[in-house]
Amino acid sequence: MPAARQIFVAVIGAGGVGKAFLSQLSQLTKRLSSEPSTPINLALIYVARSSKVFFNEDYSPISISSWESDLASSTRTVPSPTQIADYLSKAPASVILVDNTSNEDVANAYPLFLGKKISVVTPNKKGFSSNLKLWQDIFKAASNGTGSGGYVFHESTVGAGLPVLSTLKDLIETGDEIVKIEGVFSGTMSFLFNSFMPVGGGGGSFSAEVTKAKELGYTEPDPRDDLNGLDVARKLTILARISGLEIESPASFPVQSLIPNELESCKSGDEFMKRLPEFDGEMDKLKQEAAKEGKVVRFVGSIDVAEKDVKVGLEKFDASHPIAALKGSDNIISFYTKRYGSNPLIIQGAGAGGDATAMGVTADLIKVLRLLL
Ligand SMILES: NC(=O)C1=CN([C@@H]2O[C@H](COP(=O)(O)OP(=O)(O)OC[C@H]3O[C@@H](n4cnc5c(N)ncnc54)[C@H](OP(=O)(O)O)[C@@H]3O)[C@@H](O)[C@H]2O)C=CC1
Ligand SMILES: N[C@@H](CC=O)C(=O)O
């Protein structure tokens, strides 16, 4: 049996997606260690939540079966992204950093990590949908961009585990021309409208469905980031940039917010959730108005590449429309291209949830492993 190749994994963020990722990493580690042709010794060397961190100065591995208790009992001070980059860059093997947070400071440090040959895999949209300069700096530094640093993959930033970004890149790299991308891009919004306003009538109260979406792990850490349309706007920014549009930020195009004006000033997500039921009547009115026309309302987005037109918001659909018929947290994303003509290439399936999202993150980690070997 050939000698095993050592690769280190560092994980920042151990919430819904992070925990599911660590469980998939455990399976993957076992499988790769017994690969007959190229065994890989995949070792977890760093794990962190917002206020806790666990790692060993000498880079000895963390047991993947006891990371949770090791982290809980750790008394280490949480390092800054610069200190994390410094520690990881001195490791005696290649490192893949998995960012399972939605943290802006961690995302801002991607060019730094990549420049130090640390690869980055993440479902965190912030690095790819904030200002255009950060996007450019990330791909200037990365080896799968124009640089010579680590590799970067972020499939789960759009459509959770669905192959949305890889499909878009394949279309472009094989010479197709993207005309328009449209659909439902949020697992939370899909779940909310499918259950609050199902085809055929009925459905629960809007605020109760928001609570359920949060409990199911579909929402952003603060559900206001879904309801204000920004999560969808971030995803469209990423898709538009890959399609060649230089979108400065998600604030560059119209985005409809579902946050009631009166709740704009809420100081916390908890306060917002507590007061949201006061506005169920307004959402019921929206449902009744659509029903009068035999329609349902859904939260959608579109990118018209030729017109450089991006928009996000509510639209009415006939009951027979595929968008009206979605179930659960499903996303549906239609690529209209020159090659596919008027019959778009369509991707559909769960667009949120810990396991589905972690699948995209783990698949990205495998892509990096293949490049590193
Ligand atoms: N949930 C989903 O369906 C999907 C999520 N995503 C993206 O995946 C990411 C994670 O989402 P999710 O797991 O649902 O969110 P959670 O809120 O469940 O988890 C976030 C984790 O990040 C940790 N964290 C936050 N800031 C820091 C920091 N500065 N340093 C270290 N750890 C930090 C939190 O720590 P603590 O435990 O202490 O709070 C928590 O463990 C987000 O970027 C989200 O947009 C993408 C696609 C789908
Ligand atoms: N909050 C997001 C999570 C995935 O990106 C969503 O609901 O789609």
UniProtKB/TrEMBL annotation:
Which residue ranges does UniProt annotate as crossing the membrane?
none
The entry marks the following residues as binding NADP(+), namely G13, A14, G15, G16, V17, G18
| Stored InterPro entries | Asp/hSer_DH_NAD-bd (IPR005106), Bifunc_Aspkin/hSer_DH (IPR011147), HDH_cat (IPR001342), HDH_CS (IPR019811), HDH_short (IPR022697), NAD(P)-bd_dom_sf (IPR036291)
SUPFAM superfamilies for the chain: Glyceraldehyde-3-phosphate dehydrogenase-like, C-terminal domain, NAD(P)-binding Rossmann-fold domains
| Active site annotation, chain numbering | K235
Q: Which reaction does it catalyse?
A: L-homoserine + NADP(+) = L-aspartate 4-semialdehyde + NADPH + H(+)
- What is one process in the GO biological process aspect for this record? methionine biosynthetic process
Give the Aspartate/homoserine dehydrogenase NAD-binding domain ranges: 13-144
Give the cofactors, semicolon-separated: a metal cation
Q: What is its EC class?
A: oxidoreductase
Q: Which GO terms fall under molecular function for this chain's record?
A: homoserine dehydrogenase activity; NADP binding
Q: Does the keyword Oxidoreductase apply?
A: yes
Q: Which Pfam families match?
A: Homoserine_dh, NAD_binding_3
Pathway noted in the entry: Amino-acid biosynthesis; L-threonine biosynthesis; L-threonine from L-aspartate: step 3/5; Amino-acid biosynthesis; L-methionine biosynthesis via de novo pathway; L-homoserine from L-aspartate: step 3/3
The lineage's top-level taxon is: Eukaryota
Give residues annotated as binding NADPH. T101, K125
Q: What does this protein do?
A: Catalyzes the conversion of L-aspartate-beta-semialdehyde (L-Asa) to L-homoserine (L-Hse), the third step in the biosynthesis of amino acids that derive from aspartate (the aspartate family of amino acids), including methioinine and threonine, the latter of which is a precursor to isoleucine; production of homoserine leads to a branch-point in the pathway as it can either be O-phosphorylated for processing to threonine, or O-acylated for processing to methionine.
Q: Which family does it belong to?
A: Belongs to the homoserine dehydrogenase family.
- The protein here is known as Homoserine dehydrogenase
